[in-house]
């Protein structure tokens, strides 16, 4: 049996394994007496990355015992490089998770004033092409206009006897958000420290259309970015290549 070499595949695997184990226990406050496999099963309900690799990580937990003799810490097998890279990848994502603001370049988010008319919004939406537009009253976020819910609201107006053109000119974005309840509860606010994994976890709520990122995670914080459900696939690809 060989000693664990610092540059060997076995060493890289064990280091990544230990890093992942420590990070998960620290982040989710699990006790030391819980096995690695149980740790993976429990955190899979809390973390989308672990959920994605759950079965593979449990298999790798068994592999760890096949690689290293538990008492002597001597190498009794050498893992394949692909296996090592998978463990290192997951450990890196969990221990140093990438922040959304570092990878999504939407810092200059288009917004609209609460006092602007819905006609202004329609024109703006056509120009910028965004499906989600935050509405601000001075420096306070009051809501997010979503293209599909706006269309639904305008459809209700068209069914009535009211002139659509008059409605668009006379109704402010703030009033529209207030009077059409379908525009509520489809977005959430989080801080600029939010990770990609945390945002992906938020979007497991299928009713969520947008995540607004502010400096402190409040409606009065400085707007630093926005993520929509259209960005989910891109975020997943970024994690895969991280």
Question: What is shown here, in short?
Answer:
This protein has two domains: 2-96, no CATH class; 102-240, Roll (CBS-domain), CATH 3.10.580.10. The mean pLDDT is 88.
Walkthrough of the structure:
Helix 1 packs across helix 2, helix 1 packs parallel to helix 4 (about 80-95) and helix 2 packs antiparallel against helix 3 (about 50-65). The chain starts with a strand and ends with a helix. The mean pLDDT is about 90. The chain is an alpha/beta fold and about 240 residues long. The strands form 3 sheets. The chain has a 3-stranded mixed sheet. Strands 6-7-8 form a 3-stranded mixed sheet, with no helix packed on it. The chain has a two-stranded antiparallel sheet with strand order 1-2. It has 2 domains: about 1-95, no CATH class; about 100-240, CBS-domain, CATH 3.10.580. The protein has helices spanning about 10-30, 35-45, 50-65, 80-95, 100-105, 120-130, 145-160, 165-170, 175-180, 195-200, 230-240, and strands spanning about 1-5, 75, 110-115, 130-135, 140-145, 185-190, 210-215, 225-230.
What tags apply to this protein structure?
3-stranded mixed sheet, 11 helices, 2 domains, CBS-domain, alpha/beta, 8 strands, 242 residues
